[in-house]
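Narrative progress, year one. The postdoctoral researcher (J.K.) led the effort to move from monomer predictions toward full complexes, under supervision of the PI. The following entry was the first complex the group processed end to end, covering 979 residues in total.
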Amino acid sequence: MRRRSAFLVTMLCFGFAFFYIPILSMMVYSFNASRLATVWGGFSTKWYVSLLTNRQILNAALLSLKIALLSATAATILGTMAGIALARFKRFRGRTLFAGLVTAPLVMPEVITGIASLMLFILMAEWIGWPASRGFTTVTLAHITFSMVFVTTIVHSRLSETDAAVEEAAMDLGSRPWQVMRDITLPIISPAILSGWLLAFTISLDDVVITNFTTGPGTTTLPILIWSKVKLGVTPDINALATITVCIVGTGVAIAGFILNRAEKRRDRDARMAYQANK
Amino acid sequence: MSDPARAAATVAAFPAAAAPARAAKPAPFIRIEHVTKRFGTFTAVSDVSLEIQKGEIFSLLGGSGCGKTTLLRMLAGFEEPTEGRIFIDGQDMTDLPPYERPVNMMFQSYALFPHMTVERNVAYGLKHEDMTSAQRADRVREMLALVQLTDFAHRKPHQISGGQRQRVALARALARQPKLLLLDEPLAALDKKLREHTQFELMDIQDKTGTTFIVVTHDQEEAMTLSSRLAVMDKGRIMQIGTATDVYEYPNSKFVAGFIGSINFFGATVRAASSETATVEVPEFGGTVTARAIPGLVPGQAITLAIRPEKIQLARGRNEGPNTFAGTVENLAYFGKDSLYRIKLPSGRVVSVNSVNARRAGENERVADWEDAVFLAFDPAAAILLKD
Amino acid sequence: MAGAHTDNALQRWFNRRGWINLTIAMPYVWLVLFFLLPFVIVIAMSFATRTPTAPPFSFGGEHPVLNTAHYARLVQDDLYIRAYLTSIVNAGFATLLCLLIGYPMALGLTRVTPAWRNVLLMLVILPFWTSFLLRVYAWMGLMGSNSWFNKLLTAGWNWLVPTDWALRSIPMMNTNFAVVLVMVYSYLPFMILPLYANLEKLDRTLDEASMDLGSRPFRVFLDITLPLSVPGIVAGGLLVFIPASGELIIPSLVGSSAQPMIGRVISDEFASARDWPMASAVSVALLLLLVVPMMLYTHYEGKAHEKRKEEA
C-alpha cells in the first residue's frame, strides 16, 4: 500500500538537496572565469582547457586507469572464487577464519590497512628482496586485496540465493565439476561478477589512503594528485575535473539504470507469459 | 452354528494372504546391501537392504527425516554410504561419482538451468553421449513429444508454468535413457487436479520407456497409486516392504498401520488363540473380539487391535455375527461419495467409521444421524493384530 | 550407458577434491598473505622499539623483546586519549545524523511509485560511485568563508540575531562540526542502501494487519516497521561508524589540527615521526575499541544473509 506521507516526501527533498547542492555548486563554479573559486567572475571554459592540456593530470589519470583495470580483473577472479567457496562448500577446515578474512576488510579503517600493507612490503623487500621498491606493483597488490572482498560479498550473496540443486542436476547428467562451473555456475552469476568488477574498478580508481601509503616515487595516481592539490585549498581546475567525473559516472549510472529497467520489464512480461501458459 | 465356529468359517472363507508368497524372480536390478549413512553422530540411514526389479516403480515412503532422501542421494551418487554397497545392473556403483553413473534424477525443485531454453535443458546431458548432433536433435524432439512440450522448446524456464517445468525436468532426466530414474517428491509442488493427471502420465511414460523408477515421497496416496512396490521408512530403517495392498491391509507394525491411511487402534489382551483365529479382550469395546490370528500368540499377552474405518459396518439394528457392538453417533462428516462417522462407545472411546453412500438417499433417509443409536460390526478377517 | 569414459587418476582427484581445494586455496592464501600477515605485523610491531635504522624498528638486542612502553604512553599521554574520544564522538554523531536523515529517505524510497523509485535510487547511487575525495572537496568549496553558501548562511544568521552577535562569516572550516557534516555527507549512501534493502523486503501485509487491528500510521511505524528494520539499522550504522572512526581524509581536509582524530594520529606517527611501533600500538588500540562493533556487524550480516537464503 502506497501511503504518501508529507514528512517523508520533505525528507526526500531535503536529502537530495543535501546530496546535490555541493556537487551542483562545484559544477557551476567550474565555469568561473575568476581564479578565486569562491567569487564569480564570469563564464569561462578555460579551466577545462587547462585541465586537458595538463600533462601531469593526464598521466596520473592513465596510471589510475591501468591500475584499476588490472586490480579489478584480478580482484574479480579471486573474489568470485572466494564467493563460490563460501556459498557452496559448507564444511572445510578454517572456514570460520576464511569467512572472517572476507568480512574484515569491509569495515577496517583504511589507515590501518594502509600502514599494515606498507610495513609488509618493506619487510618483504628486506627478507626476500621482492618487491624491490614500492610503486605500481605494491599499489596494485593492495588494491586487489581490499577490493576482492567486495566482489566476494556480491557473488556469495547471489549464489546462495540460487538453487544448489542446479549444479547437482548438471553433475547428475554427466558433467564433471569444472564443466558444471563453466556451463552452469558462472553463467548464472555473471551479472554478479560484472557488478563486482565494476565496483572493484571504481574502488581502485578512487582510493586515496591505501594508495598513499603503498605507493612510491614516480607512481602518482589521480586521487593522490588531487589529494596533494586539495590539501593546499580549493582550485578551479579541480572543479572542472570533478564536473567531468560526475558527468561520466552519471552517464554510466543512467545507462545501467536504463538496462536494468528494460530487464525488469522483460521479467514481468515473461512471468505473465508463464501464467498464461498454465491455462 | 456356534459363534466361534461361525467365526472360524468366516475367516477360512477369506482368501489367505497374510504374507504374499514370492514367486521365483530374476536377479534383482538394483541391490542395496546393508547401507548405512552417518553424518557425524547422526545416523540418517541404518542398515538398509533392498532389492528392486528391473522396470519396477518402487517408492520410498516416510515422513521428513526418515532417511528416504539420503538413500536416494546415495543412489544418485551425491552422498557416499558410510557402510554397505550399492549395485546397479550387477555393477558395484558405490564409489562412482554422479557423473559416471547410469542414473538420472528428477529433482524436487526441478533444478532447471535458468539461462537455457527448454530444448537446451533437455539436450544438456546428451553431449556426454556418443551421438551425432542430428541424433541428439532427434532424441530431444522425442523427449519433448513424450512430455507434450514440443511447442515450448524455445521458452526459458521462467516463461513456463510449474507443471510444465516439471515435465521439462522429467524429459531432461530421461534423455540419456538411464538404467535408473530417481524421482524426489515428484508431485509435491502440484495442485490436486494436476497431481492426479501427472500421476497417470508418469505411469504411462514409465510403461513406454520401461525405465526402472525409484520415487521418494511423504504422500502415501502418491506412493500407493504410482508404485508396484513400496518401502515404508522411519528413522533411517525400513519398516515394511511390499505392494500397496500388502502394506495397507497387512501392516507389520503399529507404525506402518498408522502411517498409511487412517486406522483405529485398541489396546487388547489375548484370551485364546488357534492357528486361524484369536480371541482378544478389548476393554474399550467392553467385550471380546474375534480376529485373524498371527503367529506366536500367547494367552494373557498384551496386543494391539487395529481396524480400518472402511472395514466397519454401520447399522441401525443389531445383526447376528461376531464383533458387533453398540454405540452412538457423536459426529458425522458428509463427503458426498462417502461419510465419516465418529461413533462413541459406552466406554467413552470414539471410533472412526467410513461408510460409502452406496444408496442415493435424502437428508432424512440416512443410515445414521447425530446422536442416533447404532451398531458397529466388522469381519474377524478385517481385525488386525499387531505386536508392537 | 554410451559415452561414459573413466578418467585417469589425476582427473579423478581433480574432479573430486582438487578443484574444490584450488577454489578455496587461491583466495585464502592471498588473503592470508596480503591481509592477515600485515595485520599480524601491526600487532607484533606494537611491541617493538623505535630505532633510527631502516626499517625503523628493532626487537631484542639492547631493546626489550616485548616493549610495552607504547601502550603505556597511550594511556598516559593526553593526546591519544583525546584523539580516541574525538574520533568516537565524531563518528558517533555522524552515525546518528546519517540515521536520522537516511532512515526517512530510505523509507520514503519504498513508498514512492516505481517509476520515480528507479530514478531516485539512481540519484542516491550516483554520489556513491563518484570520487569520495571530490565529494569532500565539494563541501570545502561551500564551507570556505568567501563561498556563496557561507555568505548566504551568514546573512541569514545576521538577520536572525541581534546586532552584537553579527558575524562576517560563519567559521565552518577546520572544525569538528565540519568533520561531522562532511562525514555525514560522504557516508550517507552507506546508510541508505542497506536500510532501503531491508525496508523494501518487509512484508506490507503486516502493516495492513496492524491497521486492521486499529493502529494509526505512526503506531504502525513504531510497532511494526521500526522493530523489523533493526537489522538494517545495525548494518548501516556499523558500516558508517567503523570506517568513520578511523577516517583520515576528512579530518585532514576540513578538520582542526588542534583536535585530531585518531586516523590522523596514526598517519602522523607512522609517516612524519617514523615511529612504527607507536603507530602500530595506536592502531591496535583502535581495533580493540572497534572489535565489538565489528563482530556485531559480522553477526548481523550473517543473520540477514540467512534470511535472504530462506526467502530465495
